[in-house]
Amino acid sequence: MKSIYYIGMMSGTSLDGVDVVLVDLRETTPLLLGTFYSPYSNDLREALLSLQQSGYDELHRAAMLSNQLSYLYAEAITGLLESADVFPQQIVAIGCHGQTVRHCPETEKSYTIQLVNAALLAELTGIAVVADFRSRDIAAGGQGAPLVPAFHEAVFKSPNCHRVIVNIGGIANITNLEPGHFVTGFDCGPGNILMDTWCLQHTERTYDHGGQWAATGQVVPALLKALSSDPFFAQKPPKSTGRDLFNLHWLEKKLQGRESPEDVQATLLQLTVVSIAESIHAHCLGAEEVYVCGGGGHNSLLMSRLTEVIRGGKVALTDQLGIAIDWVEAFAFAWLAHQAILRKTGNLTAVTGAKGSRILGVVYPA
Predict the structure, then answer these.
(1) In angstroms, what CA-CA distances link 312 with 8, 162, 281, 292?
(2) Which of 215, 261, 307, 330 has the most CB atoms at less than 10 Å from its CB?
(3) What is the mean pLDDT of residues 261-283?
(4) In sequence order, what are the beta bridge partners of 134?
(5) Do 34 and 84 form a contact (C-beta atoms < 8 A)?
């Protein structure tokens, strides 16, 4: 069967860099053929963080950052194609998520912004680009997120086993894959975003490797209760969130000021664990297998705690289902680009709350 090559790109809420994958989306099982990772510089990360709130000359800064990201993405694609010995002419399209700087689906005039100059990226690579996946769903009354559950259904759903896929990136989201039922899913709260932010502030490291720093602290019950009391956690799906809500300012308002930094880190890790577990228990009744993907899967303490609190069933990584945890989301946006090129819908209304199925993404021809 003829190969159908796509590239998927994902740069998420954690702002650590961009994941790039080369995939073959022939009609049999999709194949992951190559991967590439390009980190963000500290300056780029800080510039992107500064756009999380209004500031001086932000339209110009956003446009310049979109261009800068596009050059970085193009370099990453070149690295990927060279390592895989594949030519640009062999690629149908690039599915580029872009970098989220605002996600406001609940406001009276809902919107979402992912930075990338997709026209420039198409020009630089000579490959068609599909971008701006979330806006169409929001226009249809949806949350615009999460979008990966449709991909999870396509590649991870079992005809006879009730599975749950947990993506722990900056934000954590859940996909409920119950045989014989519509797929459901939603953002359940912070994944790594608060832990990474707190770790950077107090250790100058961008993340807590393996949860080692959190392991030196103790969970503060009063703080965990205060964090868990945010209305988002009690909100019924469909729902989505991001750095607009879960940020350092949100955290600092919950602190008493007497907590040690390592105890706060331990509590933030527990918040991620509890919010995921409670969401599974409340909305994925009878789940037999839970598979984790995203950067949180590398946090051994988080994985250990998650296994402890999820009652019954298997807890493992998506590696066991054929896609390594670091590449699932980028793979998903290659698949969503393929859906757009074929004029097929990419959203799940039970997940996002949109009033109907929609073709997602804007195509920029090569």
Answers:
(1) 34, 12, 10, 16
(2) 330
(3) 98
(4) none
(5) yes
What's the rounded Cα separation, in Å, for the pair 279 and 282?
5
pLDDT digits (tens, 9 = 90+) for 1-27: 678 999 999 998 889 999 999 999 987
Domain ranges of the chain: 5-144+327-364, 148-321
Residues 244 and 189: their CA atoms lie apart, in Å, by: 12
**Which of the listed CATH numbers 3.40.50.620, 3.30.70.270, 3.30.420.40, 3.40.50.300 matches domain 148-321?**
3.30.420.40
- Beta strand 129-131 with 91-104: parallel, antiparallel or unpaired? parallel
> Tell me: the pLDDT tens digits for 291-310?
999 999 999 999 999 999 99
224 Cβ contact list (under 8 Å, min separation 6): 267, 270, 271, 274
If one counts every other C-beta atom within 10 angstroms of the C-beta of residue 153, the result is 18
CA 246 to chain centre: 14
Task: Report the top-level CATH class of 5-144+327-364.
Answer: alpha beta
For residue 238, what pLDDT band results from cuts at 50, 70 and 90?
A: very high
Q: Which two tokens stand for residue 156?
A: 């991870």
| pLDDT tens per residue across span 102-130 | 999 876 779 999 999 999 999 999 999 99
Per-residue b or e along 290-316, where b marks 16 or more CB atoms closer than 10 Å to that residue's CB: bbbbbbbbbbebbbebbbeebeebebe
How far is it between the farthest Cα atoms of the chain?
Answer: 63
pLDDT recorded at residue 108? 73
Fold agreement between 5-144+327-364 and 148-321: yes
| Dihedral angle sign, alpha carbons of residues 16, 280, 186, 93 | positive
Picking from 193, 295, 302, the residue whose alpha carbon sits closest to that of residue 241 is 193
Q: 343: which DSSP letter? A: T
Tokens of 7: 């590239």
